[in-house]
């Protein structure tokens, strides 16, 4: 991330959620009225124009041409994680921690989280910007939200937890969306070690990229261009998993993989009528802390 700037990819995800929110009620799979507050003026105008069919088709075509599959993948992924989180809460989760929260608005848009403490941990640039947006556009920071700041590649989550008295004895759902692919191998391992300290029947929902995209991007539709564009944004990808190796990797932290779907699978699950290809290298996993 460039110094003194928020994550551009976090803004794009907010843009995708805002676009979904402007769709007809019968067609959209979720509503996020807060997302539009986190995009710049050009993207905000695009969101407003997307209510009109001719502009909506143009916007969707432009996004899909630039980043094949990203829009439908990101939209379906949002819904998928919402559903996984709902499952975790129904199974007794008492607090939610969002690592690398970006412009995630689940704490305010999901009714089942309104009475649950949500701790958002992120880079100071993004965290401070988000807090200001809540104050200016919404009027306040939500009462159930606590912002904590960290640079995942340089600082220790254990130290942050000690300084802020995080409660590891509460069944917890950890959301780690859109982050692992930007970290070092050691940072990923350290974070899973941190997650493993929460009590049994805690859950982790995390995304990752197929390791092959980092070595052979040409094997995936739009892969080469995407990695080049990320380099220009100084948000290049550095880490991935081989899906077949993930269960064994998690076992070392006493974490059991419950589900692991690729973008093509969760698109089919939630957006079967929106035919779009691309971004198949992006995956979402759901796991639980074992006894």
Give the tags.
Rossmann fold; alpha/beta; 291 residues; 7 strands; seven-stranded mixed sheet; disordered N terminus; 15% strand; globular
What does this structure look like?
The chain has 291 residues and is of the alpha/beta class. It has a single domain, classed as Rossmann fold (3-Layer(aba) Sandwich), CATH 3.40.50. The chain contains twelve helices and seven strands. A seven-stranded mixed β-sheet has the order 3-2-1-4-5-7-6. Strand 4, helix 8 and strand 5 form a beta-alpha-beta unit. Helix 1 packs across helix 4 and helix 4 packs across helix 12. The N terminus is likely disordered.
Classified in CATH, the superfamily is Vaccinia Virus protein VP39
- Say how many strands there are: 7
Strand order of the largest sheet: 3-2-1-4-5-7-6
- Measured by DSSP, the beta-strand proportion falls in 5-15%
**What is the name of the CATH topology?**
Rossmann fold
Secondary-structure element series: HHHHEHEHEHEHEHHHEHE
Structural class: alpha/beta
Quickly name the level 1 CATH class. Alpha Beta
Overall CATH architecture: 3-Layer(aba) Sandwich
State the end-to-end distance.
38 Å
Number of domains: 1
Question: What Rg is obtained from the alpha carbons, in whole angstroms?
Answer: 18 Å
Described by strand count, sense and barrel closure, the largest sheet is:
7 strands, mixed
The share of residues in helices is 40-55%
């Amino acid at each position: 991330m460039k110094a003194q700037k928020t994550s551009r990819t976090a803004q794009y995800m907010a843009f995708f959620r805002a676009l979904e929110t402007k769709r007809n009620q019968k067609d959209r799979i979720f509503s996020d009225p807060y997302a539009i507050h986190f995009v710049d003026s050009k993207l905000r105008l695009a969101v407003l124009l997307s209510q009109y069919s001719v502009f909506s088709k143009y916007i969707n075509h432009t996004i899909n041409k630039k980043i094949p599959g990203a829009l439908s993948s990101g939209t379906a992924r949002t819904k998928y994680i919402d559903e996984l989180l709902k499952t975790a809460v129904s199974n007794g989760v008492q607090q939610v921690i969002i690592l690398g929260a970006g412009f995630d608005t689940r704490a305010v848009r999901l009714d089942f989280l309104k009475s649950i403490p949500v701790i958002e941990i992120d880079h100071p640039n993004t965290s401070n910007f988000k807090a200001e947006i809540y104050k200016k556009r919404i009027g306040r920071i939500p009462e159930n939200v606590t912002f904590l700041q960290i640079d995942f590649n340089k600082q220790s989550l254990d130290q942050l937890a000690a300084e802020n008295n995080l409660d590891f004895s509460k069944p917890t759902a950890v959301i780690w969306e859109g982050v692992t692919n930007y970290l070092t191998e050691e940072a990923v391992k350290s974070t899973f070690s941190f997650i493993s300290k929460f009590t049994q029947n805690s859950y982790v929902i995390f995304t990752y990229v197929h390791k092959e995209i980092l070595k052979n991007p040409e094997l995936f539709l739009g892969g080469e261009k995407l990695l080049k564009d990320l380099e220009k944004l100084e948000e290049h990808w550095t880490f991935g998993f081989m899906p077949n190796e993930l269960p064994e990797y998690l076992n070392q932290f006493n974490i059991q993989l419950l589900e692991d779907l690729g973008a093509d699978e969760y698109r089919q699950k939630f957006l079967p009528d929106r035919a779009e290809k691309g971004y198949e290298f992006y995956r979402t996993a759901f796991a639980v802390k074992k006894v």
